[in-house]
Design brief:
Structural class: alpha+beta
Number of helices: 4
Shape: globular
Helix content: 10-25%
Distance between the termini: 63 Å
Number of strands: 11
Order of helices and strands: HEHEEEEEEHEEEEH
Strand content: 25-35%
Largest sheet: 8 strands, antiparallel
Radius of gyration: 18 Å
Strand order of the largest sheet: 2-3-6-7-11-10-9-8
């Protein structure tokens, strides 16, 4: 009986891993309606993009790194890992990018290493006592990769990864007077 139970658990784990959503393989303007099923429709509170939101990260993988649901223990800020998947609107569901927030150092460090190996030296970077910010550009996919590490306390750092269409404007705006995400990030973190 124990052997059958162990076998069933193993089969379940393997089938769950095969259904992983590989975030780095999502293409800009790809319809992601199927991925959004079961996720909360929301607006990114920082950049205003229409988004699918979740903190249930166990079904996601990025740059070969398995993500997990995680809440930082004993932190007054009650930080937790989560993701916003940006879409043009909830009718077309065309993928515009993502914002991944992690509070688990192991996952963050593995992603930083993978990005550095894949994209090399960043186009822009600023490192100081409060924040580390780096920007890469993927010409082939026409997207920016933003990495922001917020050194909140000696023992805690926030990790924010944004991958987004290169000409996307904050708040899903079409108004040329509205900042592009790249300009907004540059203004907030790279000056």
């Amino acid at each position: 009986m124990k052997t059958i139970l162990k076998l069933m658990i193993l089969v379940t784990l393997i089938s769950c891993r095969q259904n992983q959503i590989k975030l780095d393989e999502l293409k800009i303007n790809q319809n992601i309606a199927q991925i959004g099923v079961g996720l909360r429709q929301d607006a990114d509170p920082i950049y205003g993009f229409n988004s699918y939101f979740t903190d249930e990260l166990d079904k996601f993988k990025i740059f070969g790194v398995q993500l997990s649901k995680y809440r930082y223990p004993n932190n007054v800020m009650s930080d937790y890992s989560n993701i916003y998947l940006y879409v043009d609107n909830f009718k077309n569901n065309n993928f515009l990018g993502l914002r991944l927030n992690l509070v688990k150092d192991k996952e963050s460090n593995e992603i930083i290493k993978a990005i550095s190996n894949l994209y090399g030296q960043p186009l822009y970077k600023k490192i100081d006592s409060n924040d580390d910010a780096k920007v890469w550009y993927d010409k082939k996919e026409k997207k920016h990769i933003f990495l922001i590490i917020d050194k909140q306390t000696e023992n805690f750092k926030g990790f924010e990864l944004i991958i987004a269409k290169d000409d996307i404007r904050i708040e899903n705006s079409n108004d040329p007077k509205t900042n592009k995400l790249f300009d907004q990030i540059k203004m907030l973190y790279l000056q």
